[in-house]
Structure formats: C-alpha cells, structure tokens
Amino acid sequence: MALASLRDRVAIVTGASSGLGRAAALALARDGARLVLVGRDRRRLEETTAAAAAAGAAASLALCLDVRVEVDMRRMADATLARHGAIDILVHSAGVLRAAGAGLNTVAAMTTREWDEVLDINLRGTFLANRAVLPAMRAAGRGDILNLASRSGRSGLAYDAPYCASKFGVVGFSEALADEMRHAGVRVQALLPGRFATEVLTQIGLPQPGDIPPPERVAEAIRWMLRLPADARMLSPLIEPLQSTGGGSWPPAPPPRTRKETSMPSPFCSAAEDLRGKVVLITGGSGGIGLATARAVAALGAGVVIADLDEHRVAALADEVGAVGAAAGSPGALGLAVDVREEADHARMVQATLGRFGRIDALICCAGILRKRGTPPKLMVDVGVDEWDEVMAINLRGTFLANRAVLPAMVAQRAGLIVNISSVQGLQGRAYDGPYCASKFGVIGLSQAVADEVKSYGVKVQALMPAAIATPMWEQNLPAPMPGDALPPERVADLIVFMLLQPPDTVIVGPVIAPLGARRRRATKASAE
Ligand code: NAD
To answer: Which tens digit of pLDDT belongs to each residue from 268-294?
Structure first.
C-alpha cells in the first residue's frame, strides 16, 4: 500500500483523556508519532500519557486545557512548537454529547445553557483548535487536520438537537476549511463515527451494551486517513458498527427489519493485516481502478478473479497479478471473459470462481462506462435511447446482476463484502452526463437497499464514490481533458483494501475519495469526471 508513515510526525490530539481521542493517541503512538495530548482531566490525561509511552511514544507532552478558551488553544499551539518545533497533525476529538448534568431533552423544554455548553465545546472549540494550529501549518506548507464529527452530523435525532446541530456544524466547518486550505498544503478532513463503545455512553447513564465495537475501530480509520497520501482526501466518511445475527434462513421471511437483533458471539476480533485466504472477484478488473485493486489485494495474499470483456487481456493480466501475489501467499489469479450486461455470464463467473477457489469473500464492481462508446457529452434532450440503455445496462443493471449472483455464496458463508463503485456523480448530478449520473445515483440506492437486506447475515454492501481518478475512462470524455490533479487509481485500491480489512463488526459507509482540490473544481463549471 502507498500509505505515508507517521513516524516522528508531531501530532496534537484533543480530547485525549478518554474515548476516541485516547484510542487515536495510542494508535499514533504505536506508529511512532510525537504526541501532544490535550484534555481537561489531569489524572486521566496522565493515564493516557503513560499508555502512549508504553505503546512507543517518547515523552509525550500533556496539556490540561479547555477547547472553549481561546488563550488555551493558543497555548496548545505555542507549547507544541516550543517542544517539537512543528505541528504536523491535529486530531480534534474533544466533545460532549450533552451539557453537564443534562439528559435527553426536547428543544421546547431545553435551557439555553444546555444548548450553549454543547455548541461551545463541540463547534466553537473546533473552530478555536483548528484556527490555533493553522499559522504553523501554513508557514510550513503542510499539515493534517482531522475533526471528529459524528453520524449525528449527517442525520438529526430527536432529543439531542444541540449535539446534532454542533456535529452538522463540524462537518460544514471542516469542508469549508478544507476548501480554503487546499492550496496551502493543509488537508482538513472530518470523520463521522456511529456509536462505538466509549465512556460517553456511561457518563450519560446509558449502559454500554457489550456488543458495541471498541473505539480502536475508529482510531484505525483516523490513522488511515492521516496516512492517505497528500494529494487525496476523504470527504467526511461515516464509520459504523455493524451487528450481525449470523443466521436465519435465506431468503428471510418475514423481512428482518422488524425483528430484534442479537449480536454474533465474538465481534471483538482484531483487524487482520493481510488478505490471505480471501478471494476477491473484480468486474471491470482490467480497467484502471479494477486492475489497481487486483494488484493491491494480490499483494496482500488474496486470490483474485479478474472479470472483463477482453479474453486475451484478462488472461495476460491474471498471469501478471498472480505473479505479484505469489510472494504474499496468494493462491493465484483467474482471468474470465465476462460481459456484465449478460445474465448468463454472471452465473458462469460465480461458478468458475467457486470452482477455482471454493469461496467468494469480496465482490468489487468496477465495470462501468461514462457514455456509450464514441458518443460525446450531450444534453439530456439529445440523448438517444440506445445511449441511455447502454450506460444503464453496464453501470446499473450490471451491478445488480453481479450483486445478485454472488449473494447466495456470501450468505451461505455468513460473510462477505461487496463494494459497488459509484461516483461523486452519484451524489451530485452534472449537465451533459444524465445517463451516467442516473446510473451512479442508482448504484448507491441499490447498494443501500441490498446492504439493509443482508446485514443480518454478516454480508456488507457498500457504494464507494471516487471523484476524478486517472484511468482510461477519461478517453471517453474527449475533447474535455482529465483534470491535472486526478488521483492515481491506487488511491481507490488502497481504500478498498482498508474496507476489506475492517473487522466484521465495523463498516465504512459510502466513502467519497477526492483529489485535494476537487470540491472547488466541481463548483466551478467542471466539464468532466
Ligand atoms: P476504466 O475504463 O479504466 O475501467 C472500466 C472497466 O470496465 C474497463 O476495463 C472495461 O473494459 C470494463 N467494462 C466496460 N463495459 C463492460 C462490460 N459490459 N462488461 C464487463 N466489463 C466492462 O475506468 P475506471 O476509471 O477504472 O472505472 C471503474 C469504475 O469507477 C467505473 O464504474 C467508473 O464509473 C467509476 N469511476 C471512475 C472515475 C474516474 O475518474 N476514472 C470516477 C468515479 C467513478
């Protein structure tokens, strides 16, 4: 994997005395970062400092400061510069669910203090902490800020309006700052965790159910986002716990939606470090993203199936990828000529995969086209039915057929991951590419529906949304050129590998990966993907 090292990078972690902040600090300590730990509770901060030292961090600096206080945040930056001479990373985790002593409350009954305290800590604190580190990062021409938001920063929930409002605010703030800083070498990202087992639950009187995954899952995602090479950023991804009943008959009747779910016996298994013993099937496997993924998973020991149109090319690539994987213990690679428009091809693909490897652990649906071959960008009023049908048949119907074909094997295994490659154009429509946008919105809807159907069976289904990636697909976009900052396809491949390495109890939901300057370019009249 082409991920950056965190060794000797100077990292400030706020909210480091407990929960996600503490877990992030320990993950960075294990990577050899130089740490500045910020919290309000001196005793607990000292505990984190001792744990960080045991994990490998040399003499971390511990600062007892309040993120609501402007001079405290300035002190945080000054003390870091005095000790380490630089600020490379800020992981801003300080936050509260509710005001001290407050419980669930309606907006109608809420006191102003309940509102102010949460907004002050969560949102104003984010502003103050981020602003405090910016001068040093801008002067150095590099820096990484990662703000912890929440799933409640994507959808609001009754009785916790201050928390939801503050976390929506953190996402908006982070995306705005990211846009401002994209030419200054400073990357700003937000991560939106669902409910992981941190003390915030017990502090507010909620028992911690034993089957909620630990904060280390989120820490691993933070670490991965910080190690992502500097040309790319993740646009506010969600990381969610996933409960699986591990059983029940297939297909389910009645739908599991109404049933109370119980967890699988041991969801706390630790993340695997390689993909040995796994089998990854990739449609569009000889294209840009598909081939980069085939190489990446083979290099970690997976068996690979490369399914694509051209028989000779898939055979040659299977030899090459098989050779890449041999040293890592991969059982080899299989090339299959498959047209994803053809139902029968999917049945053959699954049969051949099971025949060769005996299982299917992951399906990566990369087969896709921007437009019907040889056709230029067009207004919707000018799009021919044949052009519409071709894009839909490959991008959306092909994804449906592939998902449907592998699911019986995955459900029988009670394990599997499907990653359907959508696009940022699946989130935001764009003129002149109606069929493509419609197909990619459809891929997200399909993925969410299937995910909901099979999650109780240990099978995860995800859409992944890349922005501009430098692949042959851009040749279909001529005369509009590929943007100069299009990411190499290995960035997407690395993200897929990270998704594959998640333990069964955790899922990265609908990630968007983009070049550092992507948002602004899309806002100006972008002409091409
Ligand atoms: P690519 O053109 O390099 O790869 C696409 C592959 O799909 C090709 O190998 C092609 O032969 C294969 N394919 C097309 N029709 C097929 C069919 N009927 N049956 C089997 N295979 C078929 O492009 P890429 O960039 O690697 O695209 C992979 C996926 O990523 C696509 O779904 C695309 O929409 C998506 N995507 C790409 C970008 C980008 O900027 N490149 C951005 C967002 C999303």
So the answer is: 233 457 999 999 999 999 999 999 999
529 contact partners, CB below 8 Å, separation of at least 6:
370, 423, 424, 425, 433, 436, 467, 468, 473, 474, 477
Alpha-carbon distances, residue 342 vs 349, 362, 371, 397, 461 (angstroms): 11, 20, 19, 10, 22
Is 201 a residue whose pLDDT tops 70? no
Residue 13 vs residues 29, 92, 161, 174, 231: alpha-carbon distances, Å? 11, 6, 26, 16, 23
3-state DSSP of 278-291: CEEEEECCCCHHHH
Q: Give the separation between CA 240 and CA 157, rounded to whole angstroms.
A: 16
Distance CA 417, CA 244 (A): 13
Task: Tell me: pLDDT of 522 over 60.
Answer: no
296 C-alpha vs ligand 1 centroid, how far in Å? 17
Q: What is the pLDDT of residue 521?
A: 43
515 lines ligand 1 (CB under 6 A): no
Alpha carbon of 359 to ligand 1 centroid (Å) = 25
φ, ψ of residue 215 to 5 degrees: the values are: -65, -15
DSSP assignment of 135-165, as one string?
HHHHHHT-EEEEEE--GGGTS--TT-HHHHH
pTM to 2 decimal places: 0.87
Two tokens at 366?
Answer: 């990369």
Question: Please, what is the angle between helix 216-227 and helix 19-30, to 10°?
Answer: 50
Ligand 1: which atom is nearest the Cα of residue 365? 32
301-328 pLDDT, tens digit each: 999 999 999 999 999 999 999 999 999 9
How far are the Cα atoms of 42, 339, 490, 491 from residue 1, in angstroms, in the given order? 38, 30, 8, 9
pLDDT at residue 253 above 70?
A: no
Residue 436 known to be catalytic: yes
Identify the residue whose C-alpha is closest to ligand 1 atom 34. Answer: 368
